[in-house]
Amino acid sequence: MSNIFRSNILKSQKRSFSEGTALFEEDTWFFFEIDAEEESELEFYLNHELKVYRDGDWLSGVLLEDGIIVTPYERIRIENGDRIQIKKNILYSLENLLEEISDDAFHQFTTALNNLGYSIYDSIFCHNHLVFLGNQKIKEGVNFITFDNGVEVCAVQHHFTYYKKKRDRFEFTLSTGRRIVIESFNL
Asked: How far is CA 117 from CA 90, 94, 105, in A?
């Protein structure tokens, strides 16, 4: 599995964008997020991936100053009232954890998470214990990750042992009481 494969899995995740409306008030651009019902300055999202809805299609690009979006083909100016989507960030600690686990564990984890109705972008908390182990020869412990898809919450315990072999065990517990466990061994 390559970094391209991992990248494609991340790109296919649901709820990877926050959707809302662009508002221009008092010489300042704002983003009014539909789900959160709150507004923030669009300036906060400079250099983020962004989509704007125009003529029945979503156009993707990167947000620059003054409400300008640069696409591979053109520059677009956001207009007051435009529907926009802003790419969410993955929690830094979760991003580091995903980089540490094997390709097989990454694939199994994201597949199980998606099958339960969650996305990597639904993460609201991650304690990555691996970070604290540095260059130790034997690494073992537990990471804790919490996901919220807007309907239910899922707590994940990631038990790991990394020595001569890599062993990853993910225990998913949903707020409904449903539980699943998956394991990945790499020789």
From this structure: 17, 18, 18
| Segment 10-33, tens digit of pLDDT | 887 888 888 899 988 888 889 988
- With tokens 């038990």, the residue in question is 159
Identify residue 4 by its one-letter amino acid code.
Answer: I
Segments of the chain with pLDDT less than 50: 1
DSSP, residue by residue, 11-35: HT-TT-EEEEEEEEETTEEEEEETT
- Burial (CB < 10 A; 0-12, 13-18, 19+), residue 120, is buried
Output the CA–CA distances (angstroms, integers) from residue 8 to 3, 5, 108, 110, in the order listed. 8, 5, 15, 12
Q: Whose CA is closest to 77, among 65, 94, 95, 91?
A: 65
SS3 assignment, position 127: strand
